[in-house]
């Protein structure tokens, strides 16, 4: 129903800075199910600046919600994009969100302009746990960005009633209620 990406070099944990990520994984997530749609591999970038070693501590999540002024949007449009991010933004087209261990301010603004929710998570966050969190939110609500993405996907499906995506059967079964955790 919605596509979500993860910055991971081990394909298990979210452990990479978005701008320097050499691997991005995109999943299609529905309530109770997730399927890996693709893995993008990029040239590894060396990070610079004061935030290059910054990350959140275990278990923390930071959902970015910026409101950009018209001047900021104009300035971003005029600024030539950084090569390391262009290919990633193209790969992420159609995604609702990207989970990463860190995301620079410039990339946050560009992701938001592209309609992709940037989410910074602390070390130790597994992709499977985050997929379950999104699955639960798709079924029960509770995450505003998921609700916006779900509404956008439903509007798009109503306007373009193309053939529905048929799962390959190679996906992950996810939770849709707290009771399933017990």
From TrEMBL:
Source organism superkingdom: Bacteria
InterPro entries: Di-Nase_FeMo-co_biosynth, DiNase_FeMo-co_biosyn_sf, NifX-like, NifX/NifY_domain
Domain Dinitrogenase iron-molybdenum cofactor biosynthesis: 62-134
Keyword rRNA processing in record: no
Record carries keyword Heme: no
Keyword vocabulary terms for this entry: Nitrogen fixation
Sequence intervals crossing the membrane: none
Family: Belongs to the NifX/NifY family.
Name of the protein this chain belongs to: Nitrogenase biosynthetic protein vnfX
Species in which this protein is naturally found: Azotobacter vinelandii (strain DJ / ATCC BAA-1303)
């Amino acid at each position: 129903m919605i596509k979500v990406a993860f910055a991971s070099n081990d394909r298990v944990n979210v452990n990479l800075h978005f701008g320097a990520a050499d691997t991005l994984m995109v999943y299609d997530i529905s309530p109770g199910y997730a399927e890996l749609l693709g893995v993008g591999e990029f040239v590894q970038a060396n990070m610079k600046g004061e935030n290059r070693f910054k990350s959140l501590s275990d278990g923390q999540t930071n959902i970015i919600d910026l409101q950009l002024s018209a001047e900021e949007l104009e300035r971003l449009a005029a600024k030539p994009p950084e090569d390391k991010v262009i290919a990633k933004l193209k790969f992420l087209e159609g995604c609702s969100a990207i989970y990463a261990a860190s995301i620079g301010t410039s990339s946050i603004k560009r992701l938001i302009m592209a309609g992709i929710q940037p989410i910074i998570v602390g070390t130790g966050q597994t992709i499977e746990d985050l997929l379950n969190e999104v699955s639960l939110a798709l079924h029960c609500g509770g995450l505003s960005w998921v609700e916006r993405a779900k509404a956008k996907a439903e509007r798009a499906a109503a306007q373009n009633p193309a053939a529905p995506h048929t799962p390959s059967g190679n996906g992950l079964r996810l939770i849709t209620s707290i009771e399933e955790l017990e």
